[in-house]
Amino acid sequence: IYFVLTSLMTGIVALEILFASTKKHTTLILFQIIIIGLSLVWTQQLIFPSVVGIDPGWHRMFTLKILESGYIPDNYAYSKLPLMHLGIGITSLITTFNYKISAMFFVSFIHVLSNVLFIFLVGRFLFNEKVGLFSGLLLSIANCYVQFGWWVTPNTFASVFILIVIFLLFKIRVDRALIGTSLAFFVMVSLVLSHTVTAACMAVILFTGWITFEICKIFNKSHFS
Fold first, then answer.
1. pLDDT tens for residues 19-39?
2. Residue 205 pLDDT greater than 70, yes or no
3. Dihedral, CA atoms, 200, 205, 207, 211, nearest 10 degrees?
4. Contact at 8 Å (CB) between 51 and 99?
5. pTM over 0.85
């Protein structure tokens, strides 16, 4: 019943994107997309008493060690990449929530909110409003994306930065070079401090984009000369 209702809600939002005046209802539609994404992610976490999965269990242990000792323990796999663990730990200290609830707010919530908003911004910048909204909707219900949301690991947290970097380089840097470059550099540093595989993925995306632009420049020069 839950998945049938979720499918119906997704279909209604898709119809709103197609037929509603997106300029007037963009904020409402984005809010609905985020609600669907959070529902798919949070329900998987809340039906179990603790975190779901082996890796999230290890990261829970490591974060609790940081909170218990007051410093980052050495000789662990993520001793040099503790950004997610520190964020969840700080959230837990401020809110007094346990690890799972703190991870849901600091990682899962940001994972859904940020990715939906920034893929919308990238889609709108490259195409139009409707494409951006459809991109956010399709992303929020994608199976691997949903799994990333409830399987809380540094890779989940780090993946949030990819779309932010792309938007900063494509849009903000073009309009405001200094601000865009500075923000992109700061976000990329945060990405590197979160997960090495995701950082390598970002490097591949940037390298591929650079090669593509250079090929387009050569093609345009030869075509119009």
1. 887 677 899 999 999 999 999
2. yes
3. 160
4. yes
5. yes
